Amino acid sequence: MKQLLFNSLEFIFLFLPVSFVVYFILNKYKLVLFSRIWLVACSLFFYSWWDIKYLPLLLLSIFFNFGLGIIISKHRERFNPFFVLLVGISINVLLLGYYKYYDFFIVNINDIFSSDLNLINVILPLGISFFTFTQIAFLVDAYKKEVKEFDIVNYMLFVTYFPHLIAGPILHHKEMMPQFASLKNKFINYKNVSRGLFIFSIGLFKKVIIADTFAGWASYGFDKTSSLNFYESWATSLSYTFQLYYDFSGYTDMAIGIALLFNIKLPNNFNSPYKALNIQDFWRRWHMTLSRFLRDYIYIPMGGNRKGLYRTYTNLLITFIIGGIWHGAGWTFLFWGFLHGIALVLHRIWSGLHIKMNKVIAWFITFNFINITWVFFRAKDWDHAIKVLNGMFGLTGLSMSISDNAFANLPYAFLLILLFLFVVTITKNSIELMDEFKPSIRSAIVISIIFVVSVLLSQKVSEFLYFNF
């Protein structure tokens, strides 16, 4: 099934320009309601391009949660709002669980009890993790009386707005709807257009030139070889570490850029995470809106750090195990979340000792922990993860002989790894560059070169990694 990807020619040269032009023409003639309906229609078309049979599921989810939000906010005397909130969260989680985890659950039941229960083999609806979490946040905000207006068109736009629909960021109703309502945002803002095109082009370059280059080595190492030596294993793990970084940050940049074309500012979701000096700092920089969701809607409601050290450590561990499971139905994802939870507990204990660590050593430990744990995040199963880790820790020998033709250019791979390690740890990130960006002839030439190079050199249209979560 083909997706209408940000990096596809159909999206760049047809869908996006038509969406943009019609939206502002409608606003120019003061057809504000129709302009919002147009964006909703564009977003639903964008979603349906992948597989129209899941469109009813998305619409059902939207109408269900919108109705519950009205009940929670406006009918508190007739219905217990907390009970309605629990019902809403439960049904959202059950829906997500059915599509994302049912087969995983059945497989484990069959393994444990030697049963033969049938799998449903359902295809995961695109973006279900993101639009489910977005709407759970809406219900909680409605319960907290933080939702100020209820309009079905506005709500549909909030949930389906195509720059964030498939892979985030996870939005709050209160941070988006005032922007869509603002009169000044109804007209083309050429400064926003130039900034949006600038960061979109950077994101496109990150995805099709950098991330997709590293993807080749990562895929061979994880999926297509039976064993790896020390050097191949490190090339494999580091390639995935940088593939995921540039793939996700590329998507984030492109989403921010597209939204800016329509004068909408999405929250930053990515802030140089490989500059982090500890694991807590990493999670303040990586997938920032997911971290915010886990903190505000899971960690704090469980008690956060308000009920003693033991409870704090338990809450951290549970929160990140949930974060691991959210990413995928597999024991490797759960274990990845568990490792990050343990790391955050150890960081809390270390911080309590008030012992300062050299910044270079702190960065080295943090980065290598992230790189090693990404192995579990990427591997299809335990065997694939152990294969890579065995090589990384020298258990398959330190021979420099190349075991697969895919690694014939291993020196080139390590050269690129060192280059982009420097880029992600020393240079300014794309958000900082965008904030400093000033439209000029020179900047227009730079944008054009980056964009044209990205389009011409992209070998194929590949989906973004976070589409799978």
Q: What is the count of distinct domains?
A: 2
Proportion of residues in helical segments: 55-70%
- Number of continuous helical runs: 19
Instruction: State the secondary-structure class.
Output: mainly alpha
Give the H and E element order.
HHHHHHHHHHHHHHHHHHH
Shape: globular
Low-confidence stretches: none
Report the sheet-strand fraction.
under 5%
CA(first)-CA(last) distance = 17 Å
What kind of sheet is the major sheet? none
Radius of gyration: 23 Å
Number of strand segments: 0
Mean pLDDT: 91
Subcellular location: Cell membrane
Transmembrane segments: 6-26, 33-50, 56-72, 79-99, 119-140, 152-171, 308-327, 360-377, 406-427, 439-457
Membrane topology: Multi-pass membrane protein
Family: Belongs to the membrane-bound acyltransferase family.
Describe the structure.
The chain starts with 8 loop residues before the first helix and ends in a 12-residue tail after the last helix. The protein has 2 domains: 9-187, no CATH class; 191-468, no CATH class. The chain has 19 helices and no strands. With 469 residues, the chain is mainly α. 41% of the residues are buried. α13 (309-327) runs antiparallel to α14. The protein has helices at 9-28, 32-48, 55-74, 81-113, 128-143, 152-160, 162-165, 173-181, 190-223, 230-261, 279-283, 288-299, 309-327, 331-353, 359-378, 382-392, 410-426, 430-436, 441-457.
